[in-house]
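Dear H.,

Thanks for agreeing to be a second pair of eyes. The structure we're designing against is below in C-alpha coordinate form, covering all 167 positions.
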Protein backbone atom coordinates (compact mmCIF):
# COMPACT_ATOMS: atom_id res chain seq x y z
CA UNK A 1 0.00 0.00 0.00
CA UNK A 2 1.27 3.43 -0.92
CA UNK A 3 -0.35 6.51 0.58
CA UNK A 4 1.11 9.13 -1.75
CA UNK A 5 0.55 12.27 0.31
CA UNK A 6 2.24 15.55 -0.58
CA UNK A 7 1.24 19.12 -1.16
CA UNK A 8 2.40 22.69 -1.00
CA UNK A 9 0.59 25.80 -2.10
CA UNK A 10 1.32 29.38 -2.98
CA UNK A 11 -0.81 32.46 -3.23
CA UNK A 12 -0.17 34.56 -6.30
CA UNK A 13 -2.41 35.71 -9.15
CA UNK A 14 -1.67 33.61 -12.24
CA UNK A 15 -0.64 36.73 -14.18
CA UNK A 16 2.25 37.20 -11.73
CA UNK A 17 3.39 33.58 -11.22
CA UNK A 18 7.07 33.11 -11.96
CA UNK A 19 8.59 30.02 -13.52
CA UNK A 20 10.26 29.24 -10.19
CA UNK A 21 6.95 29.43 -8.29
CA UNK A 22 5.25 27.22 -10.90
CA UNK A 23 8.03 24.59 -10.84
CA UNK A 24 8.22 24.49 -7.02
CA UNK A 25 4.51 23.65 -6.68
CA UNK A 26 4.47 21.25 -9.65
CA UNK A 27 7.65 19.54 -8.46
CA UNK A 28 6.14 18.62 -5.10
CA UNK A 29 2.45 18.20 -5.97
CA UNK A 30 2.64 16.42 -9.31
CA UNK A 31 6.19 15.38 -10.24
CA UNK A 32 6.85 13.93 -6.78
CA UNK A 33 3.52 12.14 -6.78
CA UNK A 34 4.28 10.57 -10.16
CA UNK A 35 7.84 9.45 -9.46
CA UNK A 36 7.01 7.97 -6.05
CA UNK A 37 4.06 6.10 -7.59
CA UNK A 38 6.28 4.90 -10.43
CA UNK A 39 9.00 3.62 -8.09
CA UNK A 40 6.59 1.82 -5.74
CA UNK A 41 4.36 0.81 -8.63
CA UNK A 42 7.18 -1.09 -10.30
CA UNK A 43 7.56 -3.19 -7.15
CA UNK A 44 3.78 -3.75 -7.09
CA UNK A 45 3.81 -4.71 -10.79
CA UNK A 46 6.45 -7.36 -10.09
CA UNK A 47 4.33 -8.70 -7.22
CA UNK A 48 1.12 -8.29 -9.27
CA UNK A 49 -0.67 -6.68 -6.34
CA UNK A 50 -0.99 -3.33 -4.61
CA UNK A 51 -2.98 -0.27 -3.70
CA UNK A 52 -2.04 3.35 -4.27
CA UNK A 53 -3.93 6.24 -2.72
CA UNK A 54 -2.91 9.66 -4.02
CA UNK A 55 -3.75 12.92 -2.29
CA UNK A 56 -5.41 15.35 -4.67
CA UNK A 57 -7.65 18.12 -3.35
CA UNK A 58 -11.13 19.50 -3.79
CA UNK A 59 -9.14 22.30 -5.46
CA UNK A 60 -8.40 19.92 -8.33
CA UNK A 61 -12.09 20.28 -9.26
CA UNK A 62 -12.57 24.01 -8.60
CA UNK A 63 -10.77 27.31 -8.25
CA UNK A 64 -10.78 28.54 -4.67
CA UNK A 65 -12.63 31.81 -4.23
CA UNK A 66 -10.34 34.77 -3.49
CA UNK A 67 -7.31 32.58 -2.68
CA UNK A 68 -5.12 33.16 -5.77
CA UNK A 69 -3.81 29.61 -5.66
CA UNK A 70 -4.42 28.65 -9.29
CA UNK A 71 -1.12 26.81 -9.66
CA UNK A 72 -2.05 24.61 -6.69
CA UNK A 73 -5.46 23.90 -8.24
CA UNK A 74 -3.84 23.02 -11.57
CA UNK A 75 -1.35 20.68 -9.89
CA UNK A 76 -4.06 18.86 -7.96
CA UNK A 77 -6.18 18.50 -11.13
CA UNK A 78 -3.09 16.82 -12.56
CA UNK A 79 -3.07 14.38 -9.62
CA UNK A 80 -6.67 13.43 -10.42
CA UNK A 81 -5.74 12.62 -14.03
CA UNK A 82 -2.51 10.89 -12.92
CA UNK A 83 -4.66 8.65 -10.74
CA UNK A 84 -6.85 7.70 -13.70
CA UNK A 85 -3.87 7.10 -15.99
CA UNK A 86 -2.08 4.86 -13.48
CA UNK A 87 -5.30 2.96 -12.74
CA UNK A 88 -5.89 2.37 -16.45
CA UNK A 89 -2.38 1.04 -17.04
CA UNK A 90 -1.89 -0.92 -13.82
CA UNK A 91 -5.26 -2.59 -13.25
CA UNK A 92 -4.03 -5.60 -15.24
CA UNK A 93 -1.43 -6.10 -12.48
CA UNK A 94 -4.11 -6.14 -9.76
CA UNK A 95 -3.15 -2.65 -8.58
CA UNK A 96 -5.90 -0.29 -7.48
CA UNK A 97 -5.06 3.39 -7.85
CA UNK A 98 -7.40 5.94 -6.29
CA UNK A 99 -7.20 9.41 -4.82
CA UNK A 100 -8.75 11.44 -2.07
CA UNK A 101 -9.71 15.08 -2.54
CA UNK A 102 -9.87 16.69 0.88
CA UNK A 103 -11.40 20.07 1.46
CA UNK A 104 -10.01 22.51 3.99
CA UNK A 105 -8.58 20.41 6.78
CA UNK A 106 -6.88 21.40 10.01
CA UNK A 107 -3.32 20.75 8.82
CA UNK A 108 -0.15 22.84 8.55
CA UNK A 109 -1.08 23.62 4.92
CA UNK A 110 -4.01 25.79 6.10
CA UNK A 111 -2.34 26.96 9.31
CA UNK A 112 -2.11 30.57 8.13
CA UNK A 113 -5.82 30.62 7.31
CA UNK A 114 -6.63 29.26 10.76
CA UNK A 115 -4.78 32.18 12.35
CA UNK A 116 -7.14 34.70 10.74
CA UNK A 117 -10.65 34.63 12.26
CA UNK A 118 -12.04 36.37 9.16
CA UNK A 119 -10.52 33.89 6.70
CA UNK A 120 -11.50 30.93 8.87
CA UNK A 121 -15.09 32.20 9.08
CA UNK A 122 -15.16 32.70 5.30
CA UNK A 123 -13.96 29.12 4.70
CA UNK A 124 -16.54 27.77 7.12
CA UNK A 125 -19.32 29.77 5.45
CA UNK A 126 -18.33 28.42 2.01
CA UNK A 127 -18.62 24.86 3.35
CA UNK A 128 -22.17 23.51 3.77
CA UNK A 129 -21.10 21.63 6.92
CA UNK A 130 -19.90 25.02 8.23
CA UNK A 131 -16.53 23.76 9.52
CA UNK A 132 -13.12 22.47 8.49
CA UNK A 133 -12.31 18.77 8.49
CA UNK A 134 -10.36 17.06 11.21
CA UNK A 135 -7.42 14.95 10.01
CA UNK A 136 -9.11 11.79 11.33
CA UNK A 137 -12.06 12.38 8.98
CA UNK A 138 -9.71 12.22 6.01
CA UNK A 139 -7.80 9.20 7.35
CA UNK A 140 -10.94 7.05 7.41
CA UNK A 141 -11.35 7.28 3.65
CA UNK A 142 -7.68 6.45 3.11
CA UNK A 143 -8.07 3.36 5.31
CA UNK A 144 -11.17 2.32 3.36
CA UNK A 145 -9.38 2.65 0.01
CA UNK A 146 -6.47 0.60 1.39
CA UNK A 147 -8.81 -2.15 2.60
CA UNK A 148 -10.13 -5.27 0.83
CA UNK A 149 -13.59 -3.67 0.84
CA UNK A 150 -12.38 -1.27 -1.87
CA UNK A 151 -11.02 -4.01 -4.14
CA UNK A 152 -13.34 -3.08 -7.05
CA UNK A 153 -12.66 0.66 -6.92
CA UNK A 154 -9.94 2.07 -9.16
CA UNK A 155 -9.33 5.35 -10.96
CA UNK A 156 -11.62 7.24 -8.62
CA UNK A 157 -11.13 10.42 -6.65
CA UNK A 158 -13.29 10.72 -3.55
CA UNK A 159 -14.09 14.24 -2.39
CA UNK A 160 -14.02 14.74 1.38
CA UNK A 161 -14.91 18.41 1.47
CA UNK A 162 -17.92 18.91 3.74
CA UNK A 163 -19.93 19.73 0.64
CA UNK A 164 -17.75 22.66 -0.47
CA UNK A 165 -17.85 21.68 -4.15
CA UNK A 166 -21.63 21.19 -4.35
CA UNK A 167 -22.28 24.93 -4.68
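And this is the sequence the design step returned. I haven't edited it by hand at all.
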Amino acid sequence: ILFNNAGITGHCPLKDVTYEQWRKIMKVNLDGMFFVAQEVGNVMIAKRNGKIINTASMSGFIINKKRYNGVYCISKAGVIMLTKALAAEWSEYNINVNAIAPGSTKTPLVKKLLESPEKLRELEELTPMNRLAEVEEIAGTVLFLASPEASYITGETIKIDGGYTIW
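Two observations from my side: The chain has a mean pLDDT of 96. The CA atoms of residues 4 and 36 lie 7 Å apart.

Warmly,
E.
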